[in-house]
Amino acid sequence: MKIGLSIPDFTWPGGPQRLGPTLAAIGRTADAAGFDSIWVMDHFFQIGMYGPPEREMLEGYSALAFLAGQTSRARLGTMVTGVIYRHPGILAKTVTTLDVLSGGRAWLGIGAAWNESESRGLGVPFPPLAERFERLEETLQICLRMWSGDETPHTGSHYRLERPLNSPQALTRPHPPILIGGGGEKKTLRLVARYADACNLFPGPQVAHKLEVLRAHCQAEGRNYDDILKTAMFQFDVGEKGENVDKVIGALRWLSGLGIQTVIGSVKNVHAVTPLEVIGEKVIPAVAGLEPAPAVR
Questions:
Q1: Whose CB has fewer CB within 10 Å in the chain, the N or C terminal residue?
Q2: Cα-based distances in Å from 119 to 45, 114, 122, 125, 134
Q3: pLDDT for 23-49, tens place per residue?
Q4: pTM
Q5: How many Cβ atoms sit within 10 Å of the Cβ of residue 94?
Q6: Residue 31: CB atoms within 10 Å
Q7: Residues 196 and 180: beta-carbon distance below 8 Å
Q8: 3-state secondary structure at position 71
Q9: pLDDT digits (tens, 9 = 90+) for 50-98
């Protein structure tokens, strides 16, 4: 099992003046501690589970670019980009730029978007759910086309690109890996089977069922289920001195038994960086050898 760091909250001691130095320290510490990846939310307002919308929120790709300059090995991505926030051609260029400047460490994390109040607050059109999923699939097609070097015009239901040129091309070949967030059984997991390199699920007893649904979609799409990385969100609370480490490791073993290969978790008091060091010293080595249990067929 691998461990990724999610940074969903930027309300830290010192206010905006300390955001840069604190984020840099977090990135450098996580990178050195052995975190496999670092992720930020693609939101412009803070979301309800972390606080009111007025709390500090950094734009995702700017934050990742900053983190790319502070790190050398951890992969970088958004958890996850709302498809309506960026035109597909610009999104492909943005992720490509991150991949090139980070030395080939970018992920494309993407989903159908859900935060209507944020979108309307900033003037971003927020179409109905069915159209957002149509746009999501078309965006995936455009990104893959641009990463393949195909410059022929794209004429789709929602987007027209006369010349989808992508230069420089991404370093990661055949393309930066794609993670689709969400566990919707009819649409989201079907898109994972068709286009993605990873899924991302909420932790819980439902994970095993969601993965079986994904397996069925893979069979229908002619896709190898084992080629898709299975990830889940998590919340790390190792305690001030690591007193909760055993409990955390137990939860990770349970998720591994359900079929999860990577957890991407927020860390309590991450601004203090000490919890990251504890995870690197005691948790990451303890779960490195975990393999998901084979599915019962």
A1: C
A2: 9, 9, 5, 7, 18
A3: 999 999 999 999 999 999 999 999 999
A4: 0.95
A5: 20
A6: 19
A7: yes
A8: coil
A9: 999 999 999 999 999 999 999 999 999 999 999 999 999 999 999 999 9
Query: How many other CB atoms are there within 10 angstroms of residue 56's CB atom?
Result: 13
Residue 17's CB is within 10 A of a number of other CB atoms, namely: 8
Contacts of 173 (CB under 8 A, 6+ apart): none
Q: Which amino acid is at 239?
A: G
Tokens, residue 241: 């001195």
* 143 DSSP β-pair partners: none
At position 68, the amino acid (one-letter code) is A
**Taking the domains of the chain in order of start, what are their residue ranges?**
2-287
Alpha-carbon gap, residue 98 to 105, rounded angstroms: 8
Which residues neighbour 96 within 8 Å (Cβ) at sequence distance 6 or greater? 106, 146, 147, 166, 168, 169, 170, 176
Output phi, psi for 39, to 5 deg: -130, 145
Domain 2-287 fold is TIM Barrel (3.20.20)
What share of residues in the chain are helix, strand, coil (percent, to 5)?
A: 45, 15, 40
The rounded distance, in Å, linking the Cα atoms of 80 and 83 is 9
The first and second tokens of residue 262, run together, are 């990577």
